[in-house]
Amino acid sequence: MNKYRSHNCGELNKNNVRENVILSGWINKKRDHGNLLFIDLRDHYGITQCVVDKNSKHFNDLESAPLESVVRINGEVIERSEDTVNKNLPTGEIEIKINSYDLLGDCKELPMPVFSDQTYSEEVRLKYRFLDLRRKKIHSNIILRSKVISYIRQKMIELGFLEYQTPILTSSSPEGARDFLVPSRLNKGKFYALPQAPQQFKQLIMISGFDKYFQIAPCFRDEDARADRSPGEFYQLDLEMSFVEQEDVFKVIEDLFKSLFDKFSDKKIKDNKFPKIKYEESMLKYGTDKPDLRNPLIINDVTNLFTREDVKFEIFKKFVKEGSIVRCIVTKQTFEQPRSFFDNIDKWSKEQGYSGLAYLTIEKNYKAKGAIGKFFSQDSIKELMKTTHANEGDSIFFSCGKVKQIEASLSLARQKIAGDLNLIDKDIFAFCWIVDYPMFEKDEITNKIKFSHNPFSMPQGDIRNLNYKEPLSIKAYQYDIVCNGIELSSGAIRNHIPELMYKLFEIAGYSKEHVENKFSGMINALKYGAPPHGGIAPGIDRIVMLLANEKNIREVTMFPMNQNAEDLLMMAPSEVDESQLKELNIYIKKK
């Protein structure tokens, strides 16, 4: 028998009554009833209640033992009385009468309690992450993460994929986020880069004749933290397939996600077949390419309305003449909402840094009330209702400005209004595909043409007759999968034709020599018979975040960094010895 335990703390029940058992774990909680001391003993598997009476020679020691001390308990399983059964625990019908105990690991004063899910500062939680991870909620999240990854591996193999590992030390890429650089000792003055993603390698795997690749891949990006993004590193399900079209990739991901989310969540999936929304349509209707389809509110363009003579809202009309647009959000049957509801939305919008939201409510006989209702004729209200599909009793919020500004403003407002009106069904997962991304976009600062998405994507249409003179009109086989307003992944059908790649990079300002220098391995491989191929890479962290119903990715990551990309537990990044720098031929110039 193992000297530390005959059973774990989550498996004993009435069938074990009168057995002598050994349990080991952490003292989760104690309750002193005078003559009796109750101890909740916790391990990875659960909690078992143990009891010792005042006559025991171990009573005083156990009474003074700090919470989170690690102890070994030897005792007899006894059945609890009916009125003391804890139905919330699998072990709730029994307890252990302690015969002896050993202190295996003493615990100093805790900087934060473990048995409570009380919120603590990020600094305390990350500095003492090993304590934070003992807490029930986050412990369960990490177990969920492990199970999700195991299930994904199993499912991908069932779908005919094989797992391959790609290099961690590679070359720097000029695209995407900032690289983490690693100095080379053997090649003085040169640097490796940690991979932002295995993009080029997985394409090389397809060119090498392997048909279906996947990997639970670590990725490294030197970028700022966000609620749904870890600074430094993250993991993704990276996959690539040969001889496929866009729909083939969609089918794999939909099959995987439907089974994955059904297995690990009680929430329902809104659409069995994930809707496909064109990028331009998504930006118009939702103001974002990451729409939350649980939200029924739709954005409409009503710019033309403010060119009418019978609309007298002069400030909007002036901006429209100068090139601005007007878009709006209709809220159904909100005529009974108090004025404070509308004013608060307007105030909130200004607090976000935007110009606010004008509003009106439609009444009978094509009349309107509200902040700007008086500026509209009956005919203009009739036209407004036709354009927006609004009805009597509906209210409409308007925003005027440049396209990017309006998209950002109304995207946020759409979520804010839906939240205030309790319109979002939190018991569903609403997936969608965003498709038909533009190949290029214009940089707002430099006014130059740049790639809008993945530069290695295949353009749509007849590739022999693409209109290179109007690059902003070229669409690409690029796609994102989104769930509940969170982007889970970007993907694309790849450009496997070298001459076409040179041409597309030239439009974005890169010379042929630059492409050959920065992407030499892949561009060279494409010249030796490359199959049509495509893939995608859903983020593991974001998938688990959705399944665990968490809003911050830190809650599903075992050892995350803080907002400043610092590991407070291991004190990284840290300074290194002068001898190490000398060996790498590196000198740090101090300010």
SSE diagram, text form:
Layout: E1 20-32, E2 36-43, E3 46-53, H1 59-64, E4 70-79, E5 94-105, H2 122-127, H3 129-132, H4 136-158, E6 162-163, E7 181-183, E8 191-193, H5 199-207, E9 212-221, E10 232-242, H6 246-264, E11 268-269, E12 276-278, H7 279-286, E13 299-301, H8 314-321, E14 325-331, H9 339-351, E15 358-363, E16 367-369, H10 378-388, E17 395-401, H11 403-420, E18 428-429, E19 431-435, E20 440-442, E21 449-451, E22 478-483, E23 486-493, H12 498-507, H13 512-518, H14 520-526, E24 533-536, H15 540-547, H16 578-583
Parallel strand pairs: 3-5, 6-9, 11-18, 12-19
Antiparallel strand pairs: 1-2, 1-4, 2-3, 4-5, 7-8, 9-10, 10-24, 13-14, 14-17, 15-16, 15-17, 19-22, 20-21, 22-23, 23-24
Helix pairs in contact: 4-15, 5-14, 13-14
Structure explained in plain terms:
With 591 residues, the chain is of the alpha+beta class. It has helices at residues 59-64, 122-127, 129-132, 136-158, 199-207, 246-264, 279-286, 314-321, 339-351, 378-388, 403-420, 498-507, 512-518, 520-526, 540-547, 578-583, and strands at residues 20-32, 36-43, 46-53, 70-79, 94-105, 162-163, 181-183, 191-193, 212-221, 232-242, 268-269, 276-278, 299-301, 325-331, 358-363, 367-369, 395-401, 428-429, 431-435, 440-442, 449-451, 478-483, 486-493, 533-536. It has an eight-stranded mixed β-sheet with strand order 6-9-10-24-23-22-19-12, with helices on both faces. Strands 1-2-3-5-4 form a five-stranded mixed β-barrel. Strands 13-14-17-15-16 form a five-stranded antiparallel β-sheet.
